[in-house]
Amino acid sequence: MAYLYIRGGFYMQTNDQVFFQGNNNKAVLLIHGITSGAAQMIPMARFLNDYGYSVWCVNLAGHGTFPEELLHTSCEDFINKAEYDYQYLKKHFDTVYVGGLSTGGCLSLYLAAKHPEIAGIIPISSPLRLLPGTFMTDTYPPEQIYFHRPMEGKLGLFKQYHIHYEDIAVAIFKELERLMAILREDGLIEKINCPAIVIQAKDDAVADPSSAPEIYKRLASQKKELYTPDYGEHSIVLTEGRHEAFRRTAMFLESI
């Protein structure tokens, strides 16, 4: 994370992509959730790096720069950026796993359906549908361009790692809907044969908690695991639920 100087004497905290070098010649690509940034995945990256994995926390398309970027970011941009990041990592490592939170987890599923050589995936809190009552499912008037989501009031790991634009282009939520619609298509998730550990807390108030069991059931993978703890919330990578989620992920990767 860094601070970018803006005219008028203000500084905006930014999300820089982060790479952790490992020693087992295996790499994990981690993709954050929509409206957040690469820093969101750092706690998980550090945990996996302790097991020897090289881990690259990347930004979704349109994230980690300026809020205006999301005005012009599409579902296709999400996919193309994830594809580019995967191909870049694949040039340097023979064994690459892909994981992510929420939108990032959706992209891990999409990539695995297109690239059977992916060594394994870790979709976390990945929605096939969103629950009503969140800022992502609210109805906004046509003239409203941004939704204001202040950074103030965050505590603990959320304050340190959940860095995001304070003004979020509401049009981006429709692009997530388009990505979820692709995953709901018959035959897409069914193409995935690589090992997979699917994680989602039952108290997830953003992604429909039925998403994880449905994803797990549709996977064609011979080796797959479903972890759905009672507690952990949507951003389980930053809550107390992260400890067991990370441990299970590491043990799953070690077993492949």
How would you characterize the overall build of this protein?
This protein has 256 residues and is α/β, with parallel strands linked by helices. 30% of the residues lie in helices and 20% in strands. It has seven helices and eleven strands. The chain has helices spanning 42-49, 75-90, 103-114, 156-161, 172-184, 211-218, 242-255; strands spanning 2-6, 10-14, 18-20, 26-31, 54-58, 95-101, 120-124, 146-148, 167-169, 196-199, 224-227. The strands form three sheets. A seven-stranded mixed beta sheet has the order 3-5-4-6-7-10-11, with helices on both faces. α3 links the parallel β6 and β7. α3 (103-114) crosses α5. The longest helix has 16 residues, at 75-90. The chain starts with a strand and ends with a helix.
List its traits:
256 residues, alpha/beta, two-stranded antiparallel ribbon
Any chance you could write out the topology, listing elements then pairs?
Layout lengths: L1 E5 L3 E5 L3 E3 L5 E6 L10 H8 L4 E5 L16 H16 L4 E7 L1 H12 L5 E5 L21 E3 L7 H6 L5 E3 L2 H13 L11 E4 L11 H8 L5 E4 L14 H14 L1
Helix pairs in contact: 2-3, 3-5
Give a summary of the structure in a few sentences:
It is built from seven helices and eleven strands.
Structural class: alpha/beta
List the uncertain runs. Answer: 1-13
Principal-axes shape call: globular
For the secondary structure, the number of strands is 11
Percentage of residues in DSSP E strands: 15-25%
Please give the order of strands in the largest beta sheet: 3-5-4-6-7-10-11
Largest sheet: 7 strands, mixed
| Backbone CA Rg | 17 Å
Distance between the termini: 32 Å
SSE ordering: EEEEHEHEHEEHEHEHEH
How many H/I helical runs?
7
The residue-averaged pLDDT reads 93
Q: Assembly type of the shown chains?
A: single chain
Considering DSSP H and I runs of 4 or more, what fraction of the residues is helical?
Answer: 25-40%
